[in-house]
Queue: 2 jobs
Job 1
Amino acid sequence: MLKNRINLELDEIKRNNLYRSFKNFYDPNYEHNFKINKNMGKNFSSNDYLCLSSNVEILNTIKDALKYGSGSTGSRLTSGNINHEKLEKTISEFKDTDSSLVYSSGYATNLGVISALCSKKDLILSDSLNHASIIDGCRLSNAEKIIYPHRDVEFIKKILEDDKFLKENQFGNIFIITDGVFSMDGDIAPIDELFKLCNDFNCTLIIDDAHGTGVLGKKGKGSLEHFKIKANENVIQIGTLSKANGLVGGYVAGYSELIDYLINKSRSFIYSTSLPPYVIAGAIKSFELIKNGDYVSKLQKNVSITNKIFSDLKNINFDDKHKTPIYPLVFGKNTMDMSNYLYNAGYQCIGIRYPTVAKGSERIRVSITSCHEKEDVVSLKDEISIYLEN
Ligand SMILES: Cc1ncc(COP(=O)(O)O)c(C=O)c1O
């Protein structure tokens, strides 16, 4: 019975051209590239923005930390609290907050933080293009939800100023939740305006800076640094170790009582084995490198270079205001064909379809890293142009 239903649904997915399958990212030169601390020049699909996943210093740190074992052996509240507090101190310093808490992934962080904080009678205002993990965290909470049009501050303001609506519903706490940098569009949330609204109306702003950390701000601290905002008690920052840090894991940063509350209430934190100590050691090293190295400025330079190179592409225009390494090349229904063409030509440029993005806005999501060379981006642009001309 179940197998029948599974087969029927799979057939339907295939009929609608929405079937997902793996692409092999194995590169015979990978080990060589690892040794020379360089990423694969034709990989434009990774979130390894600072190329730290192949960083020799991090790899050596991880090797040294293997002496603590291959796994953490338990949840943080049982046997799994090893070097984790040291990482949390590092994250708090990096994010300029009192405290922070590490989860097993960014996904688990959004699920665990949002569902623990947003209760019945609370109101969540969530951006329509927020990441799936935020959506799932909101679904798991018992709060009321309003999905606001992408980056629409006026829409939120109208709700917050609507005394009648707020009185009628007698909401407890109000949360505005947004990606800092939107994962499929590469645009930046209006954090300055949202932060002001939260201070004016006494709401809490939750920023998922998965794609902002290591990317935005001179020191790579993320969206708050980009907008020159100092975190206060109306803002909670979420992050992941899986993108610019090149590892795996997630975290939340904020004031001490918030973190204390999550340690006691956040189910994806409490009931899950903590990250292995070697990952934690690698993560501490990655923050040290981001703080002291020139990885962030290299990435930002590559973003400016790419803006110019892509300006040659027909109908696709990223001006100097484009500040992130995520480039949505929206080709609509031709996207998967284009993605396969690029793959066969040796480029890894994954096509993104519904339901990840809206129907009609299918795209190649190109991501640039600090170790791409200008020639890599030019050759990708040339290959895309050839496809478009044929
Ligand atoms: C905006 C955003 N939040 C959260 C996540 C989940 O992070 P992780 O991959 O660490 O689970 C991702 C990426 O997958 C993301 O793009």
Note: The first strand starts at residue 99 and ends at 103.
Job 2
Amino acid sequence: MRKLRLSAALFFFAVALCACAKKPKDNEIDYYTKVGSYAEPTEGVYEAGEKDLELLGENPSTVKPSGGVTTTPTPTPVPHYVVVIDAGHGGSQTGASYDGRVEKDVNLKVASMVKEYLSTHYENVDVYMTRTEDKGLAKDVADDLRMRVEFAAEKQADILVSFHFNSSDKHSRNGSMVCISKQPQVREGSEQLAKCILARLASLGLKNNGPYLRDSNDMKDENGVALDYYAIPRHGAAHNLIAVIVESCYMDNKTDIPYMKDDAALTVLAEQEALGIMEFLTQYYVKQ
Ligand SMILES: [Zn+2]
């Protein structure tokens, strides 16, 4: 192909010399402008038009018109991701309850749906769940939360997403929020993951309460700076792991209940959350 292109260049150079001897017609000028400069054909930028392919006797249908580089491009490897999904609470830890629904059960449902969606739609994503039954990882709540993050760290997870549903004293609050760590090594990634998921939930009509940071009342680092209040992001940061808590909506609020009231509603919620996760991984996350 390169030989043909050099031949084409020489051919057109000769034609151009002849053309200089007489005043070119308007359409000739137009023609040479279109085909490009033949004085210095440069590999990679020189593009053959259909006209010179015809002149060379090649069948244009067998040659890519925009050719020029004949080497096969190296395909970009598709990154492999590990996502750990955590269904909040479990066993004796029930979480919130309202109108016959118990948070730990709803968490497990939506978490399982997110796992299912990711597993069936993306070959390059391994998904693990911290629990698949109605039981926690330890009797002690502090141990339980630490072990969920340790599980993710053992799996060398890229992200840990813990699924919960919110509630408020007067059932007056509504909307979604995502609790993140403020620790610098994971802050930016956590915030971006939160934004991706929240934007998806907002697209369903849920109020976006944003990424949420909360300082611990009593735990401080060696510099006296308060650690994260919530255990999942706090332990996640200690493992350099982006670990967030998704409070999809309020399970006790009349505005939000339609978004989580049954399996059909939870399927819609889970799909958007899975898409938010993938949006983060593919568009913002740089795998180490
Ligand atoms: Zn919860």
Note: The chain is about 40% helix and 20% strand.
